[in-house]
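For the sake of transparency, this paper describes our internal protein records without simplification. Such a record has a labelled line for the sequence and another for the backbone structure tokens. Nothing more is needed to write down the fold, since each code stands for a local backbone conformation. For reference, a complete record is included directly beneath this paragraph.
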Amino acid sequence: PYGLKLSGLLPGIPNRPVMFQHTQPGLGGSTAPGQLGLADRVHFGGQRRLGLAPPAADGVVPLEAAAPRTAAFAAPAQSMSQLTLLQSALNILEACPEGFMEGQTLSTRLRALHPEQVAEVTGIAVRQRKGWLRQLLSQEPLISQVLVQGRSDVCYTLGYVPQGVLVNSVGTDFRAKRVAPAPPLYIPEAKRQKKQKATGSGTDLRALAAKIPEPEREALVQAAAEALRAAAAQQDHLEGNKISEALKAQMPHTVEIAKAAVGGKGWLRALLETVPDIIRVDIPGKAEPCYRLVDGSISYDMALLQPGYGLAQQVGLQAAPLARTAPQRGAAVPVAAEAHPEGAAQELIEAAVMTLASVPEYLEGNKLSEALKSLKPELVEATRSSLGGKGWLKKLLEQESRITSVRVQGLHEPCYALTERCAGGAVEFTREQAPAQGTHPRSKPTGESVFERLSEEDAGLLFGAAVVVLQQAGAGQGGFLEGSKLAERMKSLRPQLVERVKAQLRKGWLKAVLELEPRIQAVEVEGRNEPCYR
């Protein structure tokens, strides 16, 4: 096979997708992980440019006949050492109870387990001895670099947490130039700190906002929201200075009233950081505070993790978002709340009430579930198990009088709202949305309809991503991985691809896609009320 077929097969090499990344640039292919530039050129049309052997009778060149133009990768022994260390690092991070590990600790563990391999990797060049671990881990897309509050050393974790919130990519290719340290997430840069000191970061913003007359305050907030919606087509955030300029141009007199009420500086923060519909986000590389809309530009569960919004706590990495990955290979995760299931359930109910109080009307069941998982992952795992898996959220909330289930026209899933917002009775919300241009009607996809809606290239990349995730999770013979977790990890690996496929196939996309992959088997697991795969 060649071309697309080969690009779908190579990422599925047992246990080591990284081997694919080594081989590809070594033979002249693209360095982008998972995109097989070489496979599209190992045929008659590209042999002369790559310097490959003469074509066979069928026009296809065997890979063993290909001769690279330069020695682009290390000797086989060194490459195997790197692969051994990467596999060991994955195993160590997977078993780490905190969910992350300091770089120095991980380096010490690897040196103790594989002294010869570490000596080979650090001995490739003197320049690589310092920072060798970071360069090594940059080859593995499932390992991410994180900043943990109170830890001076850079830490590493498996990249199964939402991207763009707490995690930075470790790096790019092993042979690339040294990657500059990632900017601290949620830790202001020197320029931002200086600006915040000038504007008084310790000021009580709610007290300032209360000084602005209510009509002017509401008009300015509404205008800011419209500016954010207008910018959403290009980016999901807008710098504070741009919002300020837009407001001054649109309603200068109202802005002057607000500035006079709060005494000048800080008027925009007092407006935007005290309302539930807009959140502040710190964008790496931008010293200016930036803002996003909660309703659509960013999901509710991610909004709850932002500093100063809803249930968010101190800046930096918290224990909850990086709680230990769900059990794999039959291992049991100790959950402190298991001894008190009633207490855990009540704590989750309180979190659900506070989450629903932070949204305008209602929240879809899946979004509420994701928000609770982000806030209290261990309690969710314990409660989910005690309530039988699928449908656990409905069982948890059906006895709570403060929360009611509501019908939303246009949404085919349970939704929840605070009872006080429904006047004590059943309420049906309306959400009529015309289907987007180019999308298919909402119908349950099947294996037969996948290729009618997806390109062959997208399907091949999805197959490869699913195989890689299952291999990393140890879901071979005797093992398994729940469909929801498989979809989540595939999204971490290929977020844009998964979002594109979900938009085309809608609900049930994973089952329909995996029906076509002979390497993956659907299994029924006792105690799991959802499809599982291996």
